[in-house]
Design brief:
Low-confidence stretches: 24-33
Structural class: mainly beta
Order of helices and strands: HEEEEEEEEEEE
Distance between the termini: 60 Å
Strand content: over 45%
Shape: flat
Radius of gyration: 21 Å
Helix content: 10-25%
Oligomer: single chain
Mean pLDDT: 89
Number of helices: 1
């Protein structure tokens, strides 16, 4: 084998090793339970801000909630949830800042919170950075069990803040039903 081919082979092996190390060390979840199912919902919202001097700023936010669960009889156990947000922004004055809340379970999207999850881990995510250059997310593995016909929802809210504008704070959210029947 030529020296050049051998160098290419070693480079490929090194790159593969580095990718595998990153994959396993950055919190990428692998579901070993084949019976596990998942539910997911994504919303996309646009926000426009104006200053008293006529300057503008915009933010387009894509929010996604995912829940993994197993079903047994008339019960579903939700054992993993993932909150992810990505966004783009344009501005002529100050840049909009997006703050993501952690996921909760509620009676309804505007109802009482029934489960607020405490331990969240930053995850590794892939998304189209050409469309949404910024993003972040985290996951939680606390188990909760509900009836398959529950009316509870899972989701999270976020705020978009742009200083110096007429209405500097706006809010968005993503919620989905936990009904699995």
């Amino acid at each position: 084998m030529s020296k050049k081919k051998q160098e290419k082979r070693w480079l490929k092996m090194i790159l593969l090793s580095v990718c595998m190390m990153l994959f396993f060390s950055l919190g990428v979840e692998m579901d070993a339970n084949a019976a596990s199912k998942s539910k997911s919902k994504t919303t996309t919202s646009s926000f426009v801000f104006s200053t008293p001097r006529g300057q503008t700023a915009t933010a387009k936010v894509r929010a996604r909630i995912t829940e993994k669960y197993t079903k047994k009889g008339s019960k579903s156990t939700f054992n993993y949830r993932d909150c992810f947000i990505s966004y783009n922004r344009t501005y002529s004055a100050s840049a909009p800042k997006i703050t993501r809340g952690n996921g909760v379970h509620k009676k309804s999207a505007t109802g009482k919170t029934i489960k607020s999850f405490k331990k969240w881990t930053d995850g590794a995510y892939l998304w189209d950075v050409k469309v949404y250059p910024y993003g972040n997310g985290s996951f939680n593995k606390t188990s909760v069990t509900y009836s398959t016909s529950t009316t509870n929802v899972s989701g999270f809210s976020y705020t978009v803040y742009c200083s110096g504008t007429l209405v500097p704070t706006k809010a968005g959210s993503v919620y989905m039903s936990l009904k699995t029947k």
